[in-house]
Amino acid sequence: xxxxxxxxxxxxxxxxxxxxxxxxxxxxxxxxxxxxxxxxxxxxxxxxxxxxxxxxxxxxxxxxxxxxxxxxxxxxxxxxxxxxxxxxxxxxxxxxxxxxxxxxxxxxxxxxxxxxxxxxxxxxxxxxxxxxxxxxxxxxxxxxxxxxxxxxxxxxxxxxxxxxxxxxxxxxxxxxxxxxxxxxxxxxxxxxxxxxxxxxxxxxxxxxxxxxxxxxxxxxxxxxxxxxxxxxxxxxxxxxxxxxxxxxxxxxxxxxxxxxxxxxxxxxxxxxxxxxxxxxxxxxxxxxxxxxxxxxxxxxxxxxxxxxxxxxxxxxxxxxxxxxxxxxxxxxxxxxxxxxxxxxxxxxxxxxxxxxxxxxxxxxxxxxxxxxxxxxxxxxxxxxxxxxxxxxxxxxxxxxxxxxxxxxxxxxxxxxxxxxxxxxxxxxxxxxxxxxxxxxxxxxxxxxxxxxxxxxxxxxxxxxxxxxxxxxxxxxxxxxxxxxxxxxxxxxxxxxxxxxxxxxxxxxxxxxxxxxxxxxxxxxxxxxxxxxxxxxxxxxxxxxxxxxxxxxxxxxxxxxxxxxxxxxxxxxxxxxxxxxxxxxxxxxxxxxxxxxxxxxxxxxxxxxxxxxxxxxxxxxxxxxxxxxxxxxxxxxxxxxxxxxxxxxxxxxxxxxxxxxxxxxxxxxxxxxxxxxxxxxxxxxxxxxxxxxxxxxxxxxxxxxxxxxxxxxxxxxxxxxxxxxxxxxxxxxxxxxxxxxxxxxxxxxxxxxxxxxxxxxxxxxxxxxxxxxxxxxxxxxxxxxxxxxxxxxxxxxxxxxxxxxxxxxxxxxxxxxxxxxxxxxxxxxxxxxxxxxxxxxxx
Amino acid sequence: xxxxxxxxxxxxxxxxxxxxxxxxxxxxxxxxxxxxxxxxxxxxxxxxxxxxxxxxxxxxxxxxxxxxxxxxxxxxxxxxxxxxxxxxxxxxxxxxxxxxxxxxxxxxxxxxxxxxxxxxxxxxxxxxxxxxxxxxxxxxxxxxxxxxxxxxxxxxxxxxxxxxxxxxxxxxxxxxxxxxxxxxxxxxxxxxxxxxxxxxxxxxxxxxxxxxxxxxxxxxxxxxxxxxxxxxxxxxxxxxxxxxxxxxxxxxxxxxxxxxxxxxxxxxxxxxxxxxxxxxxxxxxxxxxxxxxxxxxxxxxxxxxxxxxxxxxxxxxxxxxxxxxxxxxxxxxxxxxxxxxxxxxxxxxxxxxxxxxxxxxxxxxxxxxxxxxxxxxxxxxxxxxxxxxxxxxxxxxxxxxxxxxxxxxxxxxxxxxxxxxxxxxxxxxxxxxxxxxxxxxxxxxxxxxxxxxxxxxxxxxxxx
Lengths: 842, 464
Description:
The complex is a heterodimer. Chain A is elongated, with a radius of gyration of 40 Å. Chain A is an all-alpha fold. Chain A has 35 helices and 4 strands. In chain A, strands 1-2 form a two-stranded antiparallel sheet. In chain A, strands 3-4 form a two-stranded parallel ribbon. The N and C termini of chain A lie far apart (about 110 Å). By secondary structure, chain B is mostly helical. Chain B has 18 helices and 7 strands. In chain B, the strands form 3 sheets. Chain B has a 3-stranded antiparallel sheet with strand order 5-6-7, with helices on one face. In chain B, strands 1-2 form a two-stranded antiparallel sheet. In chain B, helix 8 packs parallel to helix 10, helix 10 packs parallel to helix 17 and helix 15 runs antiparallel to helix 17. The longest helix of chain B has about 45 residues. At the A-B interface, helix 11, helix 15, helix 16, helix 23 and helix 24 of A face helix 1, helix 3, helix 5, helix 6 and helix 7 of B.
């Protein structure tokens, strides 16, 4: 026989066996790295590196079992052995294909990691990547050796775990002897060296095991399962006085005794470690113990039905008329018992209760239930070993999320876990008969789906039964939202600068069309300002003066007026810009202070006038008229300065309101409301006409009295925010003003996401309703959406002596806070007062 | 299958009558009996008992596990019922807090103080960070007219701009206190911006008083001190530990300004009498303690009931009940004489966090410790804060009395006992079990030293 041809064929065969694993791992790695790179907040160096080294590690663990173990499982090894091919060719081909596969996976993992833009070693310089490479090759060789030596793939995988730790153990011991435990580089080198040394040992051992397996004497020794059958055949199936249940328990114990003992030991050790570490999972060893315990639970579940899939033992039992329920029961007793022993070890080792023991028990049973379900579904031990762990991990995560985030009753989770147990109970007959086909699979999938959906049932019911808006209401909203788009397009003018330049942008915001809107903040950002189209000399001069303003301790109104002039200049420069919120907050107290100063000045003047009248009746010294005149000039000058500051502040507020009313954000509408309330307060002051001046007062009254424009702006903002929420998950649609109600995060999140439709319609109804209906609608809105809009409107509850609602300045100041809600001031008493002010104007 | 055979064997072995049987039949029976006997004696006859022990053995841990789970569930059921009864008796939620807040405050001054809050908070287009009290600037020590004060001019300009706010405060002093402001109670997420801003009001008045003291203007200084007293009372809401911390800071400012003024030789006898009257009422620590802890309990209940779901899930009904009982116990700590609250609180903290602590016969769980670590108020710290505030008041009251004595007798008292001449009882400066306030006369000034319990950070008051 042509040896080259044989080797080529063998390579082809082995590649066929291995490529699904390689492709699966590469896809998994690519998917995870993409998720970490794309989803905001998911990326971190640790995850990135973990995926990079984990892919080859997983391949190294599974390759031996796949290439050698599967041959044994399918008994093709006997067929290969019967062929006229030299055993060393078979062994070397299997070995080289594994090594090549590992190299390919390393390369692919490296490329995937690099494609995200970050090389792992650039992120984690503390990790020795060559050590991981050497260790992965070591694990691969150990996997081969155990797979050749041990008949059961499951056991060979189980044995791989302690053997893979040998280099760590020896390197640590060596480092301890050398007193070099703190030198990481030395430890890594030791680890790599021991991995290499052990690799040689396991390569040799694996070769020997393989030769023995493929040699002429192999296979004559009865296998373990056969031995058990021989040992118990009399007792189990021929002697009439033996109860089948006990016999079946014995049969299960005998055919799984190594695995049962191993997994029980793993569970007990995990329990003791967790207990000794006080149960906190954040400690390295404790975390490892939790992980080991979880895997052991899963493999115990797998053991329930997996061993009977081998050598068609389940069908053997079926042929002898053993009742399925007896088989099911006897497959469960011992693993569950082992599980209980592990949990007991944990409970006993804890110096005091954990507090989360009930969740550990629930998770252990849940993992077990899922895994025994997988054991019946997937007959291949290798696939089952991996699938059981993954499936139970996903299911437990789902159950946990259901309880934590969807507030499902823990009893529903218990029901789900029982559903998995019930599924295997019901399906044991088909499993024993070896039935396959899509119908059978469909049953399993159906049961799994029910078990998954059960804990989410209350939340799903909530979603299904939640009220929705009608199609006509939706259409109306769409129409309004589109109108906003048109308005935005026609009104927006091109920015007078290059938006990519370093112009004064205190906070980037977007308008409805996604165009950047510059925000100006004289108190924060002028020093960084680079005015567009300005020469460097001009710029230097401007920046210098602006810097002076920012760091000023010049508290005078004149200085404030200069700042306002800069803001007005920014208004001219940026067509859509509004001042930074920090500046808006400064506007209100400063306006109030200046007006109160004016009041003081006025009172002072009146006082001095009355003093003058009194003094005119007395003898006056010849110097006094000059001093009085000088004081009068000073006072007049101060008054003019204050008046200028006051009026400019009003001008800036009016312009800001105008711009805020064109915003699509409800929060901006609320901000405009607050500024209008401030203006309303001001025009209601006794000397408003004098302080404002005729023209400014006229404009202010016109602004306040224009309820139609206010309503139009609100209407469009509701629709535009609603539309925008379709793409950003509702963040901008009152979401920032949403707090958890009754702790039900899930429902609140759902409210943010889904009930925005209802809220939008309710708000539109409020805006469109006649004034007489609005109080009732407003109350309905608050009752319906709770904290989405504030009920604690201080101004609603504090009428002044005329019975009019008082406008609380403090409330205006903190209006942006969550507790007050963006809509707290909509159609409350101040708007009627504002409209009245407008009417007076007319 | 096997079980149907076994009874027949037993029946045949024990109950068959042989009288009516033929010999051959007898032989058969004998043969069968022999066979049965041999089966019984053979190892296989004992197969049943030999095989079943494993089944029983493996059922045992399952049975124990099931019993343990059932026991746990019953325990939880009982604790849940007790917890429900507890909440029926002591509701602690947002609505209850809202009602309580409304009942304990007044709305007369709400609008005025709301405006004051606005005027004193937030950015105003200038930089306050270089000013004394507000930022890095410093006040002269001692604060006396004519002392070197670099920032004085800036301070005067600032105060001139803020004069309308100061006047408004003075105009709003006489409202009924404490003053209600709109608060939306939302458990741990309850925002308290008004309380935060109250510190700015207090700082403004502190600066105003310092400037007045520096200028030797006693009536202006007195007005500012009255304003400080009123500010502390306006925001004396007894809400949460954080609220009490702010209240403590407001009171500290008030006492501290009086302290500073005593070095300036500013006051007349009448003014000193007014200062003494302002601070003579002792703090009701027991009541204050109870109010704070009850509001903290509301915080906690809201927190574990869903503000952070993971916390709630870690606690079973027993743990939740224990938490409520813990707060009851903390409230009771307040029923001790002055000076013993911090000791009691410290002891309680130690015993509560002890690993050997038991509740209903079982040791407290780790989960409880985790949760307690994140939500329990700093009991000992809060107790010390309250006590120190009261010690501070007594110290300042004593210092005022010393100055009054000096004005009355034109000499410093030789010991604190002499202060009875100006109506200061020994109870003020001598706290049983805690210590005494000390008086020392140095040249032309008297120094009132704090009691040891106030710690090293407390400074003495110099009276000129």
